[in-house]
Structure formats: C-alpha cells, structure tokens
Amino acid sequence: MRFLLFLITLLFIGNLNAQQPAQKNFGQVNPNATEAELIRVAANVSPSVQQLRWQKLEMTAFFHFGVNTFTDREWGEGTEDPKVFNPSDLDARQWVKACKEGGLKQVILTAKHHDGFCLWPTKYTEHSVKNSLWKGGKGDVVREVADACHELGVGFGVYLSPWDRNNPSYGDSPKYNEIFVNELTELLSNYGKVDEVWFDGACGEGPNGKKQIYDWDACYKCIRTLAPDALIAIVGPDIRWVGTESGYGRESEWSVLPINSTDQKKITEASQSNVNIIPAIDYQKDDLGSRQKIKDATGLIWYPAETDVSIRPGWFYHSKQDNEVKSPGKLLDIYFSSVGYNSVLLLNIPPDRRGLLHGNDVKAIKGLKKLLDKMYSINYASDANISSDGTGTKGIIDNQMKTFWTTKGEKETGTITINLPKPQTIDVLCLQENISIGQRIEKFKLEYRDGEIWKEAGKGTTVGYKRLVRFHPVTAKDFRLFIEGSRLNPTISELGLYKSPVEIIK
Ligand code: FUL
C-alpha cells in the first residue's frame, strides 16, 4: 500500500512538472542540438515573476517633464538656467489619478532627460530642481510622483538618461559613471519601491562629440541590489524596445529571443540611438524570434517588447500641440497594435507648464478607457458551448490565466469549437497563452460557419500574453479555432470574441 501511495505521489509530481516546468527566463542550447531539442528549450523559456507582473499591466504611462517643458524643446542642451523650471500648480496626484482612471497601471517619470536637469534635489549636480524657482528650490518632483503612485497603487518607474549634455564629466568615462551610479542610488534608495528603470539609448553627440563608455554592469548591479523587483528596460536585460516610436508593434512578436540579440552592444546601438537611421518600417516588420531566427541560437531568453509612443507629436509638452492630441479611436488602434501584438504599451502623456496633465490629454485617455470597457464588456464566447480535441477547454473562458486549454501529450496542433447560443456579430478575436510556462503558438486561424460553408474570419502567427485580431464583422453562431503550429503543445488561457466599439481601421 505504501509503495502504491509512493508511486501515485511520484506520478502526480511528474505530471505537475510536465504541466508547469519551473520558471526560467533563460535557456541554454547545446551546440549540437537538433531542431526538436532547440524547440523544446524555446518552448520552456518563461518570464520571471517581475516580467510576468509587468506584462499583465498591459498599459503604462510615460511622463516627459523637465526644463524642455518650459523652453519648448524636445532635446535641451543642458545650458538652460535651472530657474526656467517653474510649474505654477504642480499636482502629481492629478497625473497619476488620471492614468489610473484611464487604465494605465504603471508610470515612468523622466527623472533626468538628455539635458541633465534632475527633477529631484540630487547631491551630484547643480542642474536640478534645487536651483529652480519652484517651491523656492525645496521641491522634489520624483517624490511627488512616487508618493502619488504608492498612495494610489500604481507602479512607479524612473527614466534616467545616460546621455547628459550638462554634466562636465560626461565623456570622462569613469568619473561620469560614478556620478551616474550615484544618481541611480539616490533614486532607488529614497523614494520607496521602484518597478522599472528605463535607460534610453539615445545619444546625439555625433562623430566629434564626447564618447562615454558606460559601466552597465555597475548600473545593473546597483539596481539588482537596491531594487531587486525593478525591471531594467531598453538598454537593459529585462524589457526590450519594440523598435518604433509610432505605437505600432510587430504582428509576429516573440518574447523568446536568441541570446545573441541581447548582446549589450547591439542593444545599445539599436536602442533609439538614432531613430532616423533605423528604417522604422523594416525594423517593425522584422522577425526576431521565428524558427528561422533562433536556429543558430546558443541560448534563448525571455525578452519582451515595450511599445512607447506619445499621445502628442512631441515627447514634451508644447502648447502648440494642444489640438494634436491623439483621439480615443487612434489610441484604440494603437492599443490593438501594441497590447494586441503581445507588447506592453508605454503611452507618454506630458505634463504642461502648470505641472498638470492637459485636459485634452486626460479626455483622450478616458475616452480610450471607455472604448475598451465597452468592447470587453461582452465576450460572446463566455456563454458558448465549447469543445475541443484537447484538455482544460473550460479554462479559456473563466478569466483566469492559470487555467488553460492544451493538447494531449505534446501535440502541436488542435481545434476548439465554439457554438454560441445565437448568432452574434463579431470582429475581434482575443487569444492569450499561458505564458507562465512559455510562448508557443506559431500559427492559428478562426473560422465561422456561413450556412454549410466554413469561412475564415481571421488568422495570425504568434499569440503570447495577448493577441487581438481584427477582421471585417461576421455574423455567425458557430466558430472554430485552429491552432496550426506550435512549439510543443500550445496553451490558451483565455479566448474572447468581441465587437469593436469603433469601425475596424484595418
Ligand atoms: C528617445 C529620446 O531621445 C526622446 O527624447 C524620448 O525620451 C524617447 C522616449 O526616447 O530616445
């Protein structure tokens, strides 16, 4: 009997392990690995706890604010008088509250942009709020934003520009590196929990400019020590720039990439160093993680995409752009093309000279939220009769990531049939993989029954955390989803059939 119990326990543990391999966001590939062995590694690379938390945020905000707000520039030269920084009515709570109400769950503040002006009273430069007129030099924007975030339960992140056009030590590598780590240390020690650190790759020094060799290892060590839960984005190992500032990511978005793509030099070079010379359209269409791209990988990592875009033409506030704020419909299109393309949206909403988010911007994000709420309010699949050739089928409509459909064994294809109680008009398919065990789906299509004929409604390649597919509205009762290709057995955590609140733009 004991032996039997022992056997049952072993089998149970074995089964658990097969269903949910231990979380690991890096996979080593044996140099002589066959394609099947390589795919096995790729299928089991999964996000870290912090990466998973971040991915689930879906929508986050950027606040570009600083001397540029007052000089009407995008890239300050670092020569500005700190006295120009003088918001009349700064209220960071208003910024964070508006974001929260708009469904943006984390914010990132430009604590220091390329001009070197620091929004906190740092000990390491005079180019900061402490020499501004605002609050008689006693103010601290980082404190106000961090406090508001912590109070309202919104994530808090800092953008710290490595390129510093003010600091006389910039270009004198060891000296500036020390200052940079000191600045980082202040930000990570004095403002409570920090969830994301954003290092911009931009540097416009040109061929005769100052050449700073950054000590990234020291920066990462500092972050891992002082803020172990913070993700390091862009010039960093945890979150990758999607490759465009348009808000439109790539349709085939793999979060599992060959390790050679994260080679530090390549990340730095590709990270917005000069958006003009990176042909945005090609970069966007490029495929980073298909079988073809990973075939020679020596390692694979979980390196998910973040899509940054501004709600206005500029990153900083310019009154002349007050009427160029993106409409809710445009923001929804961006949502479909960022969150709906397996990426996290980082939407910039720049505070104005008063130190408030402008009414037009607040209206636009609230408008977006309204559209999203309307779309997600009815999932036509939720009361459907669902069947499949796999297991866990009920789990795809229970709003829980942890319950999921998969195929039997390691079968790479599967079919889910969805019979609605009555015909409905839909034009959006939402799929979510259980990425906590990896990203696997490579190809899928949705069909609907028109009389006796099955017709294609929409199709796609990757899914990842979330994939939204828009198509011309179809009115039908019976649908079937084919998973046509996968790395090992595919998973689906959630499936949604929706009606877009605005006409499909595509
Ligand atoms: C770029 C910067 O040069 C822009 O000013 C902005 O901060 C954007 C998010 O990243 O590289």
Note down, in words, how this protein is organized.
The protein is of the alpha/beta class. The protein folds into 3 domains: 23-57 and 256-303, no CATH class; 58-255 and 304-375, Alpha-Beta Barrel (TIM Barrel), CATH 3.20.20.80; 385-498, Galactose-binding domain-like (Jelly Rolls, Sandwich). The chain contains 13 helices and 19 strands. The strands form 4 sheets. The protein has an 8-stranded parallel sheet with strand order 6-5-4-3-2-11-10-7. Strands 12, 14, 15, 16, 17 and 19 form a 6-stranded antiparallel sheet that branches. Helix 5 runs parallel beside helix 6. The chain starts with a helix and ends in an 8-residue tail after the last strand. The structure holds beta-L-fucopyranose. Beta-L-fucopyranose binds next to loops.
Structural key phrases:
506 residues; alpha/beta; TIM Barrel; Jelly Rolls; eight-stranded parallel sheet; six-stranded antiparallel sheet; 13 helices; globular; binds beta-L-fucopyranose
Indicate the topology:
Elements: H1 2-19, E1 26-28, H2 35-44, H3 49-57, E2 59-63, H4 67-71, H5 92-101, E3 106-112, H6 141-152, E4 155-160, H7 173-189, E5 196-199, H8 216-226, E6 231-234, E7 240-241, E8 256-258, H9 264-270, H10 280-285, H11 291-294, E9 299-302, E10 305-310, H12 328-338, E11 343-348, H13 359-377, E12 385-388, E13 405-406, E14 414-432, E15 441-450, E16 453-460, E17 467-486, E18 491-492, E19 494-498
Parallel strand pairs: 2-3, 2-11, 3-4, 4-5, 5-6, 7-10, 10-11
Antiparallel strand pairs: 1-9, 8-9, 12-14, 13-18, 14-17, 14-19, 15-16, 15-17
Helix pairs in contact: 5-6, 7-8, 12-13
This protein binds beta-L-fucopyranose.
Residues 74, 200, 202, 272, 308, 315 line the site of beta-L-fucopyranose.
